[in-house]
Specification:
247 residues, mainly alpha, globular
């Protein structure tokens, strides 16, 4: 697992282009959409300025999308034979999935570290507590691993990168819009409220918003349990199915 994380560090050291280009979309969400809706004040956000309210959502959207599309690397590794070599080593399938997923989390953290200074520049007021910030980044790290494992699970059913791209795009925005990333869940239509209860992104956004924006940790324990259950299911499913990738 450590070797896979180190490999990801090396990839980022030699080529950070993807991290920079993937940051453009979340920055636009914050700078254009967030600033506009904040000025209009059309969405009630429990007394929090709208630009502050959506910052955790945009942050999680960015890191989640990075992890969801990590399966593309797995598909490429299958085509190049790297994954087959990994599977014949004594390393367990569970370790391979965790290692590849945590490597994706490293990439997601770098993504988050680019967005935070931009949010500060446009006036987002963060809750000033270093322990809360550290916990928020740990949540982002482990939750990104869960989405990367989900990505590996999806990749086990798809044989080409083109098909994976289509599926990835089909699930990312529904995840985003059926969570509390852009508006409170109580404002959603009834069917979306039900979906939001089963959407892991809702719990990730809620916990990070409490830690870095409001300082309100009332729901933190429930959020952490939901994220842990999601990660367990994702890692287990990906570990069971990873051999399908090379079949």
């Amino acid at each position: 697992m450590i070797v896979m994380i180190e490999l990801e560090f090396r990839r980022l050291k030699h080529d950070r282009t993807e991290v920079y280009t993937r940051s453009i979309q979340p920055i636009l969400w914050l700078v254009i959409y967030g600033s506009t809706m904040s000025a209009i004040k059309a969405i009630p956000t429990h007394g929090i300025p709208y630009i502050d309210y959506i910052t955790p959502g945009v942050l999680i959207q960015s890191t989640t999308f990075t992890s969801i599309f990590y399966g593309l690397i797995i598909v490429w590794e299958r085509e190049s034979g790297i994954l087959k070599k990994l599977l014949v080593t004594p390393t367990s399938r569970y370790s391979i999935v965790i290692g590849r997923s945590m490597a994706s989390s490293i990439r997601a953290l770098f993504q988050a570290l680019i967005i935070i200074p931009i949010a500060l520049l446009i006036g987002v007021k963060f809750f000033q507590n270093i322990a809360y910030f550290t916990l928020a980044f740990l949540i982002i790290f482990f939750a990104s691993g869960g989405f990367a494992a989900t990505s590996i699970f999806i990749a086990s059913f798809l044989k080409t990168r083109e098909r994976f791209m289509g599926i990835g795009q089909a699930i990312t925005f529904p995840l985003f819009f059926s969570s509390s990333a852009l508006y409170p869940i109580e404002l959603m239509p009834p069917i979306l409220k039900e979906l939001a209860l089963f959407n892991p992104m809702s719990y990730i956004v809620d916990s990070v918003r409490g830690l870095i924006i409001t300082g309100n940790l009332t729901n933190l324990s429930i959020d952490l349990i939901a994220i842990a259950i999601f990660n367990f299911i994702a890692f287990t499913a990906a570990s069971i199915n990873i051999k399908r990738i090379i079949e």
